[in-house]
Structures are given as structure tokens and as C-alpha cells.
């Protein structure tokens, strides 16, 4: 087995990725809330697409590192 050491830079990037996932979930919730509150489908679609984009990028970066 290899002994891997976690540096502060690795932890910092992991924190960025987790924060990205949290922000993505907030955007998705905002999109659903906007649609249910009568904000219109365009506003909701912008929030959902933005949330999905952030979520995908965060997951890809998490898998790559």
C-alpha cells in the first residue's frame, strides 16, 4: 500500500468542490422555488441550468483529483 499524505492544498481544493456542490443544490432549489412561486419558467430554467452546470463541474473536478 502506498502512503499518501494530504497537503493543505489538497484539502483546500476539496473544500472548494464541496462548496460548489452546496451552491449547485441551492441554485436548483432556487429554480424550483422560483417556478412554484410564479416567477416564470425562464427564471426557473436559468437557475436550474446554472445549478446543473456547477454540479457537473464540481463532480468532474472531484473525480479528477
Characterise the protein shown here.
This protein is mainly α and 65 residues long. The protein contains 2 helices and no strands. It is elongated, with a radius of gyration of 16 Å.
Brief summary of the model shown:
By secondary structure, the protein is mostly helical. The chain contains 2 helices and no strands.
- Amount of beta strand: under 5%
Rg estimate, integer Å = 16 Å
Overall mean confidence score, pLDDT: 85
* Fraction of residues in H or I helices: over 70%
Tally the beta strands: 0
Distance between the termini: 19 Å
Q: What is the H/E string?
A: HH
Largest sheet: none
Our count of helices gives: 2
SSE inventory with pairings:
Elements: H1 8-36, H2 41-64
Helix pairs in contact: 1-2
List keywords for this structure.
65 residues; mainly alpha; 2 helices
Amino acid at each position: 500500500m502506498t502512503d499518501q499524505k494530504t497537503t493543505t492544498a489538497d484539502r483546500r481544493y476539496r473544500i472548494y468542490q464541496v462548496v460548489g456542490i452546496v451552491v449547485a443544490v441551492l441554485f436548483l432549489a432556487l429554480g424550483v422555488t422560483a417556478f412554484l412561486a410564479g416567477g416564470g419558467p425562464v427564471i426557473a430554467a436559468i437557475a436550474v441550468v446554472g445549478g446543473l452546470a456547477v454540479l457537473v463541474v464540481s463532480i468532474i473536478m472531484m473525480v479528477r483529483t
